[in-house]
Specification:
- The chain is mostly helical.
- 62% of the residues lie in helices and 0% in strands.
- It is built from five helices and no strands.
- α2 (25-43) runs parallel beside α4.
- The longest helix is centred in the C-terminal third of the chain and has 21 residues, at 79-99.
- The chain is globular, with a radius of gyration of 18 Å.
- This is DUF1844 domain-containing protein.
- Residues 100-120 are annotated as: Disordered.
Length: 120
C-alpha cells in the first residue's frame, strides 16, 4: 500500500485527522448527540414533511442510542451542554409515545432504560 493515491484521498484523510484532533471531546459528543436527535426527529415524523419519512422502528433505535450516549457521557460533559440535550431527548421520547399506535408501558419506551419512565 502506498502513502499517496492518485486521487489525493490520503492527503484528505490526513487533513481530516488533523481537524478532528483539534476538536475537544465534548464538542464531538454534543455533535453526535445533535445528529442522533435530528435523525430521530425526522424518523418520528416531527419535520415539516411529517409522515413522509416517519419510521418509528428507526426512531426507536435512534432515541435509544441518544439516551445511551447521554447516559454514558453524563460525567464528561457539563450541565450547560447536557441539560438541553436531555430536554430534547425527553421531547423525542414523549413524541414517540404519542405517535405510537400501541404505546410502550412506562419505562419500556425508547431510551427509558437509561432515563427512567417518561411521562407527559
Amino acid at each position: 500500500m502506498t502513502d499517496a493515491s492518485p486521487t489525493g484521498q490520503t492527503a484528505d484523510f490526513d487533513a481530516m485527522a488533523r481537524d478532528i484532533a483539534e476538536v475537544p471531546a465534548v464538542e464531538v459528543i454534543v455533535t453526535v448527540a445533535v445528529n442522533l436527535m435530528s435523525a430521530a426527529a425526522v424518523k418520528a415524523g416531527l419535520t415539516e414533511e411529517g409522515d413522509a419519512h416517519k419510521d418509528l422502528d428507526e426512531a426507536r433505535k435512534l432515541i435509544h442510542a441518544l439516551a445511551g450516549l447521554l447516559d454514558a457521557s453524563t460525567t464528561e460533559i457539563s450541565s450547560f451542554h447536557a441539560a438541553p440535550l436531555r430536554d430534547g431527548l425527553k421531547s423525542l421520547q414523549l413524541a414517540f409515545r404519542e405517535a405510537s399506535l400501541v404505546p410502550d408501558e412506562p419505562g419500556q419506551g425508547p431510551g427509558e432504560k437509561y432515563t427512567g419512565p417518561v411521562f407527559g
